[in-house]
Amino acid sequence: MTKKIVLLTGASSGIGEAIARKLVRTHQYFPLLVARRLDKLQSLAHELECDYFVTDITQQEQVKKLVQYAYSKYGQIDILINNAGYGTFGGTLETSFTDYQGILETNYLATVRLIQAILPSMLGAGGGKIINIASIAGLTGVPNLSAYSASKFALIGFSESLQLEYGSQIQVGILCPGPVQTPFFQGKDPKTLFPSLIARQLLDPETVANETIKLIDRPRVKVIPKKLFWLLLFKRIAPKLYMALCKKMYDSFFTQQKSFSTVENGLSINKESG
To answer: What Gene3D superfamilies does UniProt report for this protein, alphabetically (predicted)?
Structure first.
């Protein structure tokens, strides 16, 4: 059986690394791993016996070189998994406008750039699959993560539009995980960053990787863990009550967690990345 060619961004650590390992273990896919960090990316690719390409997907010319490399070597890209992304903890006034720009560029615009570069060839080949790793924060706002949350809202909206435009040929999957135990937290205890209702739902990268592989088989919008799906359903049914209860929950949490205020403004959190 011919293996499907999968281009995976943000592949050098965290969720991306877990997805890469899972892809190889299925024996159905051949991953082309993409990230910025040569050392980690090269080491992982050699271990998994797959290909890699070091690039910064926020740079147009580098994206062109990546796509040219992939198609010249493999002839096609069957599946694109957009996982690269990052964020910062901090309130709206504590987060610099430069941080907002950088997060939007990496988490949203870079994904659009890569999809625009690959989509014509996918359509010409008769179709393909695109899996975008979003976040629960792209479905409901999260205090002190406004830049990250906004970028994921944008990614989800774009993904849905893409499905409506090209759904007859391109299958689009959107995975919206809750908090994941990765370098995203920079060693911080999630209990000091989120109310217990959210912190208790902490996922490991392997769980997210497993769900990503499932989305390849059946692309759709999926929220994990399931308990957070019911929370979002409540938001849709009773939005005003949902927002009032969330406000009360976060206000109480911030009052109780005095240590939260000691979290450095601009602390990098990295889901990615590469």
So the answer is: NAD(P)-binding Rossmann-like Domain
